[in-house]
Amino acid sequence: MANKITIFDSTLRDGAQAEGISFSVEDKLKIVKTLDEFGVAYIEAGNPGSNPKDLEFFDRVKKIHLKNAKIAAFGSTRRRGISVEEDSNVQSLLTADTPVVVIFGKSWDFHVTDIIKTSLEENLEMIKETLRFFKEKGKEVIFDAEHFFDGYKANPDYAMAALAAAVEGGADCIVLCETNGGAFPDEVYEITKKVVETFKVPVGIHPHNDGGMAVANAIMAVKAGATHVQGTFIGFGERCGNVNLSTVIGNLQLKKKLECVPQEQMVNLTQTARRIAEIANVTLSDSMPYVGKSAFAHKGGMHIDGVSKASHSFEHVNPELVGNERRFLMSEVAGRSTILSKIQKVNPDVTKDSPETKLIIDRLKELEHLGYQFEGAESTFELIIRKQLGKYRPFFELDHFKIIGEHPAGNEDFSSSAMVKVKVDGKAEITAAEGDGPVNALDKALRKALEVFYPNLKDVHLTDYKVRVLDTKEATAAKVRVLIESTDGEDIWTTVGVSTDIIEASWIALVDSIEYKLIKDIEKKFKPYL
Ligand SMILES: [Zn+2]
C-alpha cells in the first residue's frame, strides 16, 4: 500500500445532485476555500457548459489562490459518431480553464449497447480520443469509469478494455466508479486488485452508498491498492449519497496511517464538516462518525464512569484528534473545556472553577434548549460570554420598528419597507428604508439610523442569510433559527437568532451582528493602549 492517498471531493458536482441541495456561486466559492484550507487535493466543480452560474463560478475561482487543491471540471466523453472537435460539450469543458479535467465514460457493455446505443468499439474510441484531446491541451486528465464494478461482473474483458483505452489516451489516473452503490466490499477488493495489477497508472475509487457500504468499499479498494478516493465531504449526493470523505479520512489517516490531508489539519476535520453543512444548509447527522455532535457523547452512567477513568474504554479514538469533543450528557461538565477556552479569550483570568464559568455554561444550556446552536455562530457565542462577564454594554436602545410588505396591483413584485426608531444616549433617530424583503429592509433601516452615531457601520453588509425550521413535529408552533453572516471587508462574522417569529429571529441576529462589529472596532482601536 502507498502511504499517501489522494482525496478528491465532488461536493460541488455529485453532491449538488442530492435532493434539497442547491448552491449559489457564493456557496460554491466558500466550499472551495473550506476544502482547500483543510488540505483536500482535488475539488471537482461541474461542467461550465451546463449553465451560466457554473461559468461565473469557474471565472471567479480562478482568481482565488489555493494552497492545496486543484480545481477539476467534469464532463463526458465525446458523443458517438462525431469527432471530439465537433462536440460542443467537450469544447465547453475547455472554457472552464481548469488544470484538471475529469472525463467519465462507459465501461459496462450493456450501457454502451442499450443506453447510449453505440458499438462496443466506438465507445472505446470515444474514451481514447477524448482523453487524448485533453492531454494534448496540456491538462491533467482523470478517467471515471462509470458502472465499472457492474460492468466487470457482466463482461470483465470489456470493462478492462475501457480502462486500457483510457490509459492509451493518456489518463493520469483511472477511477473505478461504483455508480449504482450496491457492490459488496469483498467484490470491490477483488476487482480493484485485478485493475491495480494490470495497469501502471494510479487507480481510484468512486463509491456510492446505496447499500450502506460506501465507506467499507472505499477502504477495501485502498487495501487492494487504490490511491485516490472520490466522494463528498459529508456524504451527500444523489439517492443515498456518495462516500462520506470525512469518515474515509478519519479511518485511513488515524487507523491506517495513510496520509490523506496534512497531519496538522486532522484537528480541523469536525469544523470542516460542520462548515460545509452550514454552507449547504443541511443538518449534519448527530451520529455521523468522527464529526457528529453525538459521535463522542456518553449518556449511560457506567459509560461515563468508564470514559472518565480511561477514555479508550468506550471511545475508538480520542475526539480531540479530529477536533470533536467528548460530551457527558447527564453531567454538569459538558463541553466545559471548549467553553473555557472561549471564555479565556475574553478574560484570561477566568478558570474552570470560577463562578462565571458555571453561569455561562448554564446560560448556554438554556439557549441550546431553546434551539440555539453556536457551531456556525461564534460571534453570538462571544457576545453571550461578554454579557455574563460584564464586558458588554448595549450600543443602542430600540424604541420600535414597523415593517410593511406590499404587493401593488398590476405589479409583479412584492416590495418591503421598514421604519426603525432607535435611541443612543437619549438621542432618538428615526429612519425608513426599502429592501428586497422584510429582513433586508429592516437591516437597511436599522443601519441607516445607527450610522448617525457609529459611522463605521457604513462598511458592514450582510453576505448570507439562512433560515432553518426547527421542531418540525409541531409545524404550527415551529421555531426558526436564522443565521446571518456579515462582513466589513476585513472580517467575516456570523450571528444567530431563534424565535417562533422569523422577523424576531432575524432581528436578534441583526442586533448581534451590529454589536459584534462595534465591540470588535473598539477593541482594535484600544488594543495598542492596553
Ligand atoms: Zn458519482
TrEMBL record:
Root EC class: transferase
Classification via PROSITE patterns: AIPM_HOMOCIT_SYNTH_1, AIPM_HOMOCIT_SYNTH_2, PYR_CT
Question: Which catalytic reaction applies to this protein?
Answer: pyruvate + acetyl-CoA + H2O = (3R)-citramalate + CoA + H(+)
Q: Which residues form the Pyruvate carboxyltransferase domain?
A: 5-273
Task: Write out the coiled-coil annotation as residue ranges.
Answer: none
Tell me which Gene3D superfamilies the record gives. 1.10.238.260, 3.30.160.270, Aldolase class I (3.20.20.70)
One annotated GO biological process: L-leucine biosynthetic process
EC id: 2.3.3.21
One Gene Ontology term of the molecular function aspect? 2-isopropylmalate synthase activity
Q: Identify the keywords attached in UniProt to this record, alphabetized.
A: Amino-acid biosynthesis, Branched-chain amino acid biosynthesis, Isoleucine biosynthesis, Transferase
This protein's pathway: Amino-acid biosynthesis; L-isoleucine biosynthesis; 2-oxobutanoate from pyruvate: step 1/3
Q: Which family does it belong to?
A: Belongs to the alpha-IPM synthase/homocitrate synthase family.
Entry protein name: Citramalate synthase
* Species, as recorded: Defluviitalea raffinosedens
